[in-house]
Amino acid sequence: MNDSEKKTGIGSFGLFSLGFGAIVGVGWAVSINRWMAHSGGPLPASIGYLIALIMMVPVALCYAELASMMPVAGGGMAYAYRAFNEKLSFVSGWAAFGAFVTIIPWEAIYVVDVLSLLLPAAKGPLLYEVAGTGIHLGHIVIGTVVSTLLYWVNRKGAHSSAKVQRFLTIFLVGTAVVAMGVAFLSFDPEHLRPVYENVGQGSHDGFLGGAFAILATAPFFLSGFETIPQAVEDASGSGASVGKIVVITVALACLFYAALLFSLGGAMPWQAFYALESPAAANLFRVVFDGPGGTLMYYLILIGALTGLFTTWNGFMMASPRLLMALARARLVPGFFAKQHPKYDTPTNGLLFCYVLSLAGPFLGMGLIDPLTSFSAAGFVLSWVITAFCVVALRKREPDALRPYKMPGGAVLAGAVGVLMAVVFLLLFIPNNPVFMGTQAVWLFIGWMLIGVLLYRFSANERHSMPPQKREDILFANAEE
Q1: How does residue 349 score in pLDDT terms, banded at 50, 70 and 90?
Q2: Is the confidence at residue 5, as pLDDT, over 60?
Q3: Domain locations in the chain?
Q4: pLDDT reading at 3 higher than 60
C-alpha cells in the first residue's frame, strides 16, 4: 500500500466503529435474556460483565502493545510467529480463525431470524429441521442475499467496509441508548428480585457462581475488538492511537452490556423477561408498554438488532480473510489464500472462502447457536493465552524494540493475564463447573483443531519450499511501512 493510500485509510473513529460495532452487534437485543437465565438474574449477569471488564481490559492491553509494535494482519498469529515459533503461531491463528468464521454463519442465522419477524411473509415453506429448528425457504434466500451483499462491500476494500461500519455503529448505539432510556420509565428495583436464582440453566449455586457463568460466553460477545488488529495494515493513525482504541473499545463494550442488563432487567420482573421469545429486548417493550408506544419500540429494537447483526457480520467479514491471509503468507495454510486484489488489496480468495461459510448459516438454523457460541469462545481464549505470553517473551528478548504503545504493568501483568486466560480455557472443558461450555462445543473445538493439523501437514511441502526468512519477511512486510 503506498503512502497516499495509507493516509486515506481507516481513521481512529473508523477503527473504533469497526471494533465496537463488531463487539456489541446483536447480542444485547437477542441474547440478553439468555445471559440472565444462565447467570441467575440481571444483577449477577451485570456483575459478570464487570468481572469480564477486569479480565478483558488487560487482554486488550496486550493486543494494544503488540498491534502497535507489529502493525500487520494476523493479530495473535503474527505475534506468536515472532515471539515463539511457527507451530505455536499456527495454533493461535487457527483457533482464532475458527472463532472468527463461526461468528459469520452465526450472524447469518440471526439476520434471517430477525428479518423473518420484520417480514413474516418472507419466511416461506418449511424445508427441513436441524437440531429441532425448522429451516424455511425464505430463510435460505434472505441469508444468501445478505451474505452476497456484504461480500461485495468487503471486496471493495477495508475503506469501503469501514464507511458502512461507521454509519451502522452510530445507529446501533443510538437505538440501544433509547432502549435503556425508555426501559427506565418502567424500572422498579423489585423487578430485579430475587437477586439470584438458578432457573435450571447452569451448574452454579450462588450469586458469585452465576456472575462467573457469564465468562463461558463473554469471550464470544466481547471478541469483536480483534477486528482492529486485523485491520491495522489499513489504518491511517499512529500505532499508539491504534493501541488505545483497542483498550477503549473493550472497556466501553463491557460497561455497555452491564448497563443494558441492569436497565432492561429492571423494566419488568426478570423471571418473566428471561422467558420471552427472541429477540427478548424487543418483546419486552411490547409487554411493558401497551399501544402504539410499545409497538414502535418493538420495531425500533428489531431494526437496531438488524443493524447490530450487520456491524458484527461486516466486521468479521473484514477481519477473517485477513487472518487467513496472514496464515497463508507464512505458508501455515496453502499460499492460495494469500492472494490480494490488485486494486483494493482485499484478500480475495480468503474473502471468497469466508463468503461460502456465511452461506452455510441459513442452512443450519437457530438450533446450533449455543454450541457455536461456546466453541467460538474457546478459540478466542486460547489465542488470548498465547498472545499474552507473546508480550512476556518479546519484552524479555527484544527489550529495546520500538513499541509506540507500552502496556502498563508490562511483562508481569501480561504473564498474569496469560495464566488467568489459561485457567479460563481449561475450565471451559471441565464438566460441572459454571464456565463449562458443553459437550457439543467441546467436540466442535476438538474437530476444528484436528482439521487444522491436517491442513498444516498438507501445506508442509509448500512451506518447506520457501526459506523461513522469506516467509517471515512476507508476513511482516507491512510492519516496515
Answers
A1: very high
A2: no
A3: 3-480
A4: no
Beta bridge partners of 126: 136
pLDDT for res 238: 67
Res. 4 pLDDT band, cuts 50 70 90: very low
Q: What span, in angstroms and rounded, lies between the C-alpha atoms of 179 and 174?
A: 9
The predicted structure's pLDDT at residue 61:
93
Of 365, 98, 83, the C-alpha closest to 219 is 98
Please state, for a pLDDT cut of 70, what percent of the chain lies above it. Answer: 95
Q: Which residue has the cell 437477586?
A: 195
Closest CA to 240 of 449, 402, 128: 402
pLDDT at 42 over 90: yes
Torsions phi, psi for 111 (to 5 deg) = -60, -45
Local structure of 135: helix, strand or coil: strand
C-alpha cell at 109: 442465522
Please tell me the pTM assigned to this model: 0.84
Q: How many residues does the chain have?
A: 481
The verdict on whether omega for the bond into residue 334 sits within 30 degrees of 0, i.e. cis, is: no
- What fold characterizes domain 3-480? Amino acid/polyamine transporter I (1.20.1740)
Structure confidence at residue 29 as a pLDDT band (50, 70, 90): confident
SS3 10: strand
Mean pLDDT calculated for residue range 58-75: 90
d(CA 25, CA 437): 22
Give the pLDDT of residue 479: 58
Q: Are 132 and 367 in contact (CB under 8 A)?
A: yes
> Grid coordinates representing 21?
460495532
Burial status of residue 56 (CB atoms within 10 A of its CB: 0-12, 13-18, 19 or more): buried
Query: What does the DSSP 8-state code read for residue 134?
Result: E
| CA 360 to chain CA mean position, Å | 18
Q: Hey, what amino acid is at 89?
A: S
Q: Per the structure block, which three cell numbers stand in for 236? A: 491511517
Beta bridge partners of 55: none
- CA dihedral (28, 30, 33, 36) in degrees, to 10, reads -50
DSSP label at residue 400: T
Asked whether 280 and 273 are in contact (CB, 8 A), the reply is yes
The rounded distance, in Å, linking the Cα atoms of 481 and 478 is 5
Question: Alpha helix (H) ranges present in 156-238?
Answer: 158-183, 207-213, 218-222, 227-230
C-alpha cell of residue 216: 463461558
Tell me the pLDDT of the chain averaged across its residues: 87
CA 465-466-472 angle, to 5 degrees, is 155
More confident position, 25 or 51: 51
C-alpha 236, offset from chain centre: 23
Mean pLDDT, to the nearest integer, of 226-233?
Answer: 82
- Torsions phi, psi of 200, nearest 5? 85, 15
Contact between 62 and 414 under an 8 Å Cβ cutoff? The reply is: yes
